[in-house]
Amino acid sequence: MAETEDDPAANAADNVVGLYERQAELWDRLRGRSLFERIWLDRFLALVPKGGSVLDLGCGSGEPIARYFIECGHPVTGVDSSESLIAFCRRRFPDQEWLLADMRQLDLGMRFDGLVAWDSFFHLPPAEQRPMFSRFAQHIRPGGVLMFTSGPHHGDALGAFGGETLYHGSLAPEEYKALLGENGFDVLRHTVEDPDCGGHTIWLAALRRVNCGD
Question: How far apart are CA 214 and CA 212, in angstroms?
């Protein structure tokens, strides 16, 4: 992932996968279950057919977001790069599909009614976020919905978790809009630092249906 070995942001970006594996138990213990995200999860699910399939990209330990989808009647396929977090999911929800994989190499050979990348995709550096939009499109049925969180503007941001540096990256809003459009998505809703959702910046988009008359 890193472009230079002496760049703190690049080094932190390289460390994300390992950090979540090392800190999996702490992350699961501290991850809030209050579902402050519910307003956006409901907006997402309102666009998914009843019983429609959901791909949760960066599913973590399955709590609370995957659990909410499951309880709402949607089969979930979860993908995460941490073996320990996937193990939590498999123990909690054995009837769902949980895959240990890196989203940057996502190639499941199937499409879903909805894809969500909540607080996960934004751990990739900008250069690695750009090709993800074609992968999103490859895994969503025409008319299906995509929701992801990002930063409010282009750049890197360094936080901390478990005593380790945690990387976040973002493109500019204009570039996200362009990439979505180039890959067949229409932006349905975009809110910057939503005060009703913990200050998250959220994108909700739909993959355009193929017009056979074109």
Answer: 6
What's the confidence (pLDDT) of residue 58? 95
Q: What is the pTM of this model?
A: 0.91
| The residue to which tokens 């309880």 are assigned | 71
Does domain 8-207 fall under CATH 3.40.140.20? My reply is no
Token output for 171: 């493109």
Query: How far apart, in whole angstroms, are the C-alpha atoms of residue 21 and residue 77?
Result: 20
Instruction: Pull the structure tokens for residue 146.
Output: 């995509």
The structural domains of the chain, with segments of one domain joined by +, span 8-207
Strands 140-150 and 200-207: what pairing? Answer: antiparallel
Structure tokens at 202: 């959220």
What whole-number distance in Å separates Cα of residue 158 and Cα of residue 154? 14
DSSP structure string for 33-87: -S-TTHHHHHHHHTTSPTT--EEEET-TTSTTHHHHHHHTT--EEEEES-HHHHH
Residue 96 · residue 72 · CB < 8 Å: no
> pLDDT under 50 in the chain at which residues?
1-4, 212-214
